[in-house]
Amino acid sequence: MVAFYNDRDVRPACKGEATEAVALARGCWPKPELARNVNKEELGRLKLTEQEVDDIVAFMEVLTDGYRP
């Protein structure tokens, strides 16, 4: 999700159907399930470096306590 919010407006949308893994390999984003839910004003071109993306993900992983029902 962090990568998506960082460069959604930079990577092109995939042509045709594509899973997330296929889309990342192609360098594009799959079509959203509901386009009306995509925030187009605040996110999509954050200009974060790969290291900053990794740091945010690492921080978010610390917030979980590992609980599994």
Account of the protein in words:
The protein is mainly α and 69 residues long. The protein has one domain (2-62). It contains three helices and no strands. The radius of gyration is 14 Å and the shape is globular. It starts with a helix and ends in a 7-residue tail after the last helix.
Total number of helical segments?
Answer: 3
| Global structural class | mainly alpha
Strand content: under 5%
Q: On the 0-100 scale, what is the average pLDDT? A: 86
The end-to-end distance, rounded to whole angstroms, is: 24 Å
Rg, nearest Å:
14 Å
Residue share in helices?
25-40%
Shape: globular
How many domains, as an integer?
1
How would a textbook summarize the main sheet? Answer: none
**Runs with pLDDT <50, length 5+?**
none
Number of strands: 0
Q: What would a concise description of this structure say?
A:
This protein has about 70 residues and is mainly alpha-helical. It is about 40% helix and about 0% strand.
Supply database-style keywords.
mainly alpha, 0% strand, 38% helix
List the helices and strands and how they pair.
Elements lengths: L1 H6 L12 H7 L23 H13 L7
